[in-house]
Amino acid sequence: MATGNFDIKEIEKRMKSSVASLKSEFGGLRTGRASATLLDPIMVQTSYGAKMPIQQVAAVNAPEPRLITVQVWDKSNLHGVEKAIRESSLGLNPVIDGLTLRLPIPELNQERRQELVKIAKKYAEATRVAVRNVRKDGMDQIKKLEKDGKISEDESGKTSTKVQDLTDKTIKEIDALLATKEHEIMQV
């Protein structure tokens, strides 16, 4: 709905993009179970000198609950992929088997699980702050339009309520994602 020069769809799009970013961050948190998305943030220095996401130089799969396999397409990139995985903060040690890297996923101890939960909470709070900033921008736009006489006081109130409702809904979604991730991490 466009009111004056205000578009609530744009506010919604920005909030959804914050939530999508949170989902991506959560995908990189280890839960003790193998997941192909675990390696998404890893960038590989290729034999051609370029840095590329791991998915562009290899096929990543999770054939078993405690194993990730990385099938490198070009043999010259094998050691670059291995090095990138070793140097990542994931704590994985690849085993080379031909053109395939096998990554056994070790059990997480209770202390490491609690650390991961803290990191997940930090990510969620940063996303909540981003959503609140989007809300603030929207509210500021509405106030400016009202002050400039482009929308009435009633329209301003209704639109502000819609922005707040959208914010509340997005915050609830973030909280639900955090609760799910927390449960995943703490599951033994």
Automatic annotation (TrEMBL):
GO terms for cellular component: cytosol. Responsible for the release of ribosomes from messenger RNA at the termination of protein biosynthesis. May increase the efficiency of translation by recycling ribosomes from one round of translation to another. This is Ribosome-recycling factor. The keyword Metal-binding does not apply. The keyword Cytoplasm applies. The lineage of its organism: Bacteria, Pseudomonadati, Pseudomonadota, Alphaproteobacteria, Hyphomicrobiales. GO terms for molecular function: ribosomal large subunit binding. Its main location: cytoplasm. It is found in: Cytoplasm. GO terms for biological process: cytoplasmic translational termination. It holds the Pfam family RRF. It comes from the Bacteria. Residues 22-186 form the Ribosome recycling factor domain. Keywords: Cytoplasm, Protein biosynthesis.
